[in-house]
Amino acid sequence: MKLSTLALAAIVPATALGGATATLPGVADTDVPVATLEKRAVGGTVQVDGLRYRRCPRTSCEAVGQYAKGTRISLVCYTRDGTTTVEGDKGWGKLTNGYWVALAFGKHVTWDAIGLCDTAAAAAAAANSTNSTATVWPYRSFRSTDCHPPELKVTKNNGTNAITSDGYFFISPTGPGAEDQAPLIISDGGELIWQGPHGQGFGFRAQDPRGFGYGAINILDQSYERIYQVSLPKNTPIGPFVSGDNITYDSYVDIHESFFTDRGTILVTATNVTRADLRSVGGSQNGWVRDSQFYEIEIKTNKVVYRWSSLEHLDQIPLNGTFEALYGDGGERNKAFNYFHINAVSLVQDDKYLISSRYFCSLFLISQKDGSVIWTLQGKNGGDFDLAPDAGFCYQHDARIAEVTETKITLHLHDNANSWSDRTGIPTTGLLLELDLKTRKARKIRRFMNAKDPIYAISQGSYQPLPNGHVLLDHGEIPKIEEYDASGRWIMTAQFGRNLSSYRGYRQRWVGKPKTVPSLAACTQSNRTTSLYMSWNGATEVVSWTIYSGASPAEMKLVKTVPKKGFETSATINNTASTKYVQVQAKERGGRPGKKSNLLPVSALESC
């Protein structure tokens, strides 16, 4: 299938499935008495997958989103008054974003007063200060629209003449440190291009189709209108999905993957809680696990055309191959053992799939015919390959095959090298590998890392080859994007916050043509002048703004034209006897007239 235009894709939470423009309202005030709050500004670590954060400290309150196991969060205080008891504990912690999580005597969240654990990786991560809450990260605000993108801190390598690649950044800031949790398109200079609907988004990027949690994939066109939605219903031909938390979702697509193929389909991941024999990993015979699955789905029809399950291939991928320990999981359905953790899947040569298992530190090439494993590349011992000493990896993300011949395969991945329970002290890198299919040897072609700013990302991340030969790394749990040139030299880092993450990040060209009208805000000064603030969320082609005023909507006349300056442009006009209404119109490249804003009556404006 080939769509007629570029499209955006983002995985959105089930709470936002009402449409591409669905939003989550702001944090509501709770009725918890301030006097009951025991102030403890500390860091915490999430101990369970899918920990929900809510609008108040009760399970009856709306769950706005959820955290993956190992996520670092910041608790400003906690209370046991007026709360719901969870796991026998009435304690709930209030996060820096105003939401609440159940503490459950440390079963859901552990907390400390000194931040990360005392290891080499943690010390270096603390030195990076990317997730420190000591200093509030600056966010931008505007008069004309309620968007709050983060400021970008861009650092460039002055020792190279390399120029960064074309295109905007596509990121989805998520977590307590995010002013707005929404997909963003933003320029190198930090100028907002588009902010999407509020709510968590994962894998947000542009597509040329010739987005642990549950949600659906919304595919938007250049006007930011939804054209397709891909989802997985609860009931399937082989039985219903089980989430483990007694909640029914509109869609069971997992947050980790949304890979578009050239045959009109999309590959998505899913997780299903079920029974399994855990004796080989120190658990019970009748334990609980999260079965990692992937699906190939027709985009236009939402029809499932292929399904694969990790549990159905235990003969080739046994449970005891995992590097993840039980840590008390596996005994109850709501604490199912996440032994495999699929986080990437892609189509290879139309009849095979490459999948990535975070906790097996492995890549598996899967036969479409019967789902069997053709070969395994394991990042610690090589698996079916002889692994060169400098070619190892573990806890990886975003593994893709770049080139395939009869004798060799080139692939790349984001090598986290660390997890929440295994902080190795090994820096996170981008890794380009070559597999020799005849000799069964795996060698490193190149490893991408800035030695002056080592990063230790315990979760998430992406590796994007750019058209000019450069490579873009998004470091997931560490809110930094790095660009390297074709020789592997670091040339740029863009940091976009603290105490937040972006599951993946991309740099891509984009032309946005929103169907909405421009936004206009204005105020007056002693009735002598009117200050105007104009923007158009998502519009990439605007070069200037034309300002109109008039005695009535039918008598609007041109006052002046001003060049567009950043996301929001400001201008001031002198009031006359006929300045009763104001309005602006966008002018696009090539002199094309754009849309007009709504009219604002000057008499209703506030004083500046």
Give a short overview.
This protein has one helix and 44 strands.
What does this 3D model show about the protein?
This protein is mainly β and 608 residues long. The chain folds into three domains: 31-112, SH3 type barrels (Roll); 153-508, TolB, C-terminal domain (Neuraminidase, 6 Propeller); 519-604, Immunoglobulins (Immunoglobulin-like, Sandwich). It has one helix and 44 strands. The strands form eleven sheets. Strands 1, 13, 14, 15 and 18 form a five-stranded antiparallel beta sheet that branches. The protein has a five-stranded antiparallel beta sheet with strand order 7-6-5-2-8, with no helix packed on it. It has a five-stranded antiparallel beta sheet with strand order 9-35-34-33-32, with no helix packed on it. The longest helix has 9 residues, at 120-128. The termini are far apart.
CATH architecture of the largest domain: 6 Propeller
- What profile does the largest beta sheet have? 5 strands, antiparallel
Strand content: 35-45%
Rg from C-alpha positions? 25 Å
Q: How many β-strand stretches?
A: 44
Number of domains: 3
- The class by helix and strand makeup works out as mainly beta
Cα shape: globular
Which topology of the largest domain does CATH recognise? Neuraminidase
**Euclidean distance between termini CA atoms:** 53 Å
What are the low-pLDDT stretches, counting only 5+ consecutive residues below 50? 1-6, 13-41, 113-129, 207-211
Q: What helical percentage do the residues reach? A: under 10%
